[in-house]
Write a structure and sequence with these properties.
Layout: E1 2-7, E2 14-20, H1 23-42, H2 45-61, H3 63-74, H4 78-96, E3 106-109, E4 112-120, E5 123-127, H5 133-146, E6 150-154, H6 161-172, E7 180-182, H7 187-196, E8 200-206, H8 209-220, E9 225-229, E10 235-238, H9 244-256, E11 268-272, H10 276-289, H11 308-315, E12 323-326, E13 340-343, H12 350-353, E14 360-366, H13 368-377, E15 381-382, E16 384-388, H14 392-401, E17 406-409, E18 424-425, E19 428-429, E20 442-450
Parallel strand pairs: 5-6, 5-8, 6-7, 8-9, 10-11, 10-16, 11-14, 13-14, 16-17
Antiparallel strand pairs: 1-2, 3-4, 4-20, 9-19, 12-13, 15-18
Bound molecules: nicotinamide-adenine-dinucleotide (NAD).
Nicotinamide-adenine-dinucleotide is lined by residues 127-132, 136, 154, 156-157, 187-188, 191-192, 206-208, 211, 229-232, 263, 355, 357, 383, 423, 427-428.
Length: 453
């Protein structure tokens, strides 16, 4: 057993230290999950639904505690952290309605009756990144449990505290032992064991594209089911006929929320040439007003980056690039980085192409719809994006043309738990959330019953 210090990214002070799972403990936990599967699968849909509703209620009762824990562990603003804990509550509540509705089909066939059944996969391994520890955990474990699977979940090494607490709250709500376990530890030890252990039947991985590729290749060995939610470099496309004031006022939070550590961050802003200068004027005003401060402050809009390493990585993108303008950030202790705006001349520079995962945005001008779509699609990623225009036909044409999984028109919001979420191209494979999420956690079995003697 080894220990890891958990640091507060806003102060660099130790919050606590936690025990990391080693390989043997990981195997024991997977064994417990496999054993608990028989119990959990036998719980009637009505009772499974009731337990998940109770889990949702208990999470709701602990909203403030979970939120404060996230502020301390991850540097999220208190407003965001409350939303995130509320999202776990809501996702659990939404999928608590699923066990009683997870029905198969009766398909007309000759000579008998044909029925399909959705059956649980078994043990599901969920691997979570550090940027949204609570929501991303919930998007995996809530539908997985609702479909009758047991879950082992590995939080990111840097941000395990809320996930550990969520597992305790699950037990408090009455989930049987072994049904939902959280295993803090190194990715290469705990996470990789989910890939190699035969009892784990599916891996849900959210994280970097490079690691996602390795996970997928590893899972191929056992033809293990895999869902990948990976990186992004989403475009915020602003046409001259849009409400420029609104588009500019909301552009900072579309990329700097969570200090830009958001897979859906609109980190490329494409502006129609005729509106470029006016947009930049409005955008600069909005960026300078963006409140970067102690994340525990009720009015904070952005906190620090997660770690010194992340700050160095983000900084490498701006070291030798001319900066158009920046917002402000506190000085002194903490992994602070100011909101930073770059102007790209032709979209070929590294900052424009790569996922920075920090509060840095590149702005590029375009001429007309076709060029906007071409630039937006000129990326290996395809996760989300926004389109600002008052022309409804154009909004739909561009939305159909942009190769990403979650788009918004005259809005920057990408994620609702009742709508599907996931990426095109190298942003991932499979979909999470939405009405069909349980299918990704079920096998579909077909049974034919002959009725003729
Ligand atoms: P990461 O790939 O470094 O780590 C993700 C998780 O994988 C962590 O829990 C880590 O411990 C674990 N891991 C590391 N090595 C492993 C191994 N050998 N085997 C198994 N697991 C291993 O990613 P990160 O830096 O934590 O997160 C940032 C990335 O996540 C960004 O690229 C971001 O875009 C992406 N992300 C995507 C989404 C989405 O929904 N598409 C959401 C959030 C974050």
């Amino acid at each position: 057993m080894s220990y890891l210090s958990i640091l507060n990214p806003a102060t660099e002070e130790q919050v606590t230290s936690i025990e990391l799972y080693d390989l043997e403990e990981t195997d024991r936990a997977i064994k417990r999950a496999a054993k608990a599967e028989a119990t959990w699968r036998a719980v009637t849909p009505v009772d499974r639904a009731r337990l998940l509703r109770r889990f949702s209620d208990v999470v709701g009762d602990h909203n403030e505690e979970l939120a404060q824990l996230e502020v301390a562990n991850s540097g999220h603003t208190i407003g965001n952290a409350r939303w995130e804990a509320g999202n776990v509550r809501d996702v659990l509540a939404f999928y608590s309605g699923a066990p009683e509705r997870h029905s198969g089909k009766q398909i007309p066939v000759a000579g008998g009756v044909d029925l399909t059944f959705y059956e649980p996969l078994g043990v599901v391994g969920i691997i979570v990144p550090w940027n949204f520890p609570m929501p991303i955990a919930g998007w995996g474990f809530a539908p997985a449990l609702a479909a009758g699977n047991t879950v082992v979940l590995k939080p990111a090494t840097l941000t395990p505290l809320t996930a550990i607490r969520l597992a305790e709250l699950g037990l408090e709500a009455g989930l049987p032992e072994g049904v939902f376990q959280v295993l803090p530890g190194d990715g290469a030890v705990v996470g990789w064991r989910f890939v190699t252990h035969e009892a784990v039947r599916k891996v849900c991985f959210t994280g970097s594209t490079d690691m996602g590729k390795r996970i997928m290749a590893g899972c191929a060995d056992q033809v293990k089911r895999v869902t990948l939610e990976l990186g992004g470099k989403s475009a915020n496309i602003i046409f001259a006929d849009s409400d420029l004031e609104r588009a500019a006022a909301s552009a900072p939070s579309a990329v700097f929320d969570n200090a830009g550590q958001d897979c859906c961050a609109r980190s490329r802003i494409l502006v129609e040439a005729s509106a470029y200068d006016r947009f930049m004027e409005l955008f600069e005003h909005a960026v300078k007003q963006f409140r970067v401060m102690d994340p525990g402050d009720e009015s904070a809009e952005m906190g620090p980056l997660i770690s010194a390493g992340q700050r160095a990585s983000v900084n490498s993108y701006v070291e030798d690039t001319p900066v158009a303008f920046t917002g402000t950030a506190p000085q002194g202790k903490g992994y602070w980085f100011p909101p930073t705006v770059l102007e790209s001349t032709d979209g070929t520079d590294r900052a424009f192409r790569e996922e920075i995962f920090g509060p840095v945005v590149s702005v590029l001008r375009f001429e007309g719809e076709e060029e906007a779509v071409t630039i937006a699609n000129n990326s290996p990623f395809g996760l989300s994006g926004s389109i600002w225009t008052r022309n409804v036909g154009r909004a739909l044409r561009v939305a159909r043309g942009v190769e990403t999984g979650a788009l918004s028109v005259n809005s920057n919001s990408s994620v609702r738990y009742h709508t599907p979420f996931g990426g095109y191209k190298q942003s991932g494979i499979g979909r999470e959330l939405g009405p069909d999420a349980l299918r990704g956690f079920s096998e579909e079995k077909n049974v034919f019953i002959a009725t003729e003697e």
